[in-house]
Amino acid sequence: QVDLVESGGASAQVGGSLTLSCEASGDNLSSYVMGWFRKIPGPDNEREPLAAVSVDGTTDYADSVKGRFTISWDTYKNIVYLQMNDLKVDDSRKYFCAAEAKGTAQTVAHGPWWGKSRLWGPGTQVEVAP
């Protein structure tokens, strides 16, 4: 069982920066790939993969955020970060942290957002004003 709690969501200006945190607790965290996602606008619960990191530090990013967002995992504190730079209005979304029991950073960052072996946090809201 893994529990995830996101924090750091806030209001920011276009061009600004925010860092989101995901505190993870549970057993065998090192066996998971950690990822950040955000909700796609609309009534459904569909989410867009953004970035993923494995315990050995391997990272991968969606093309939409590559170069602007940076994912990292402090394995001592069990916190996964998402550093977001050069924020845009379209970055205004609810952001979710997930732990994937099967896969790699590449499959989490570029594969389907859903998965039977994927665990989610409740999310944190980001608002970017013009």
Description of the structure:
The protein is mostly beta strands and 130 residues long. It is built from one helix and twelve strands, in the order βββββββββαβββ. The strands form three sheets. Strands 4, 5, 6, 9, 10 and 11 form a six-stranded antiparallel sheet that branches. The protein is globular.
Secondary structure layout plus pairing:
Elements: E1 2-7, E2 11-13, E3 18-26, E4 33-39, E5 47-53, E6 59-61, E7 69-74, E8 79-84, E9 94-100, H1 105-110, E10 118-120, E11 124-125, E12 127-129
Parallel strand pairs: 2-12
Antiparallel strand pairs: 1-3, 3-8, 4-5, 4-9, 5-6, 7-8, 9-10, 9-11
Helix proportion range: under 10%
- Cα Rg: 13 Å
Structural class: mainly beta
Terminal-residue CA separation: 40 Å
The helix count comes to 1
What is the helix/strand order? EEEEEEEEEHEEE
**Structure summary, number of beta strands:** 12
The coarse silhouette is: globular
Give unreliable regions as ranges: none
Instruction: Tell me the β content.
Output: over 45%
Largest sheet entry: 6 strands, antiparallel
Mean pLDDT, all residues? 96
